[in-house]
Amino acid sequence: MFSYFTVANANEALPKVIEKYKALKKQKLEVERLEAKLNSQMSISFNLAEYAAIKRELNSAVTKFYQAVEDLENTGVVLKSLEEGLLDFPSKRFDDEVWLCWKEGETEIKFWHEKDVGFMGRKPLSVSDESLV
Q1: Rounded to 5, what percent of the chain is helix, strand, coil?
Q2: 3-state SS track over 114-127
Q3: What average pLDDT does this structure show over 117-132?
Q4: What is the overall mean pLDDT for the chain?
Q5: Quick check: 95 and 68 in contact, CB under 8 A?
């Protein structure tokens, strides 16, 4: 079910969200490792049985990767960029829908931006700003 985050809700959810984000990154590394392993099999000593086994492992890892994306986004956040470490929490500022923005390495939600503006348009949250849901 969709819901908007307040700054307090987002910060409360953040430790669990970060844990799921880290699991997703770890799963991406596993996919990349298996892709490299599969590509290295493409040589003169190519063995179909080994290739097929690695391909099955890769298929499983890709499935787990997308399950991890779903698990993360089921918290209510939206993955904007795994590579850049960007997650957004849907929120409202007055009557406008906005994103509360988190970047990997941050320990709390400190920024927001309009829904049609990306990371570069981040604005700091004002401590006294009661306008966010």
Answers
A1: 45, 20, 30
A2: ECCCCHHHCEECCC
A3: 74
A4: 91
A5: no
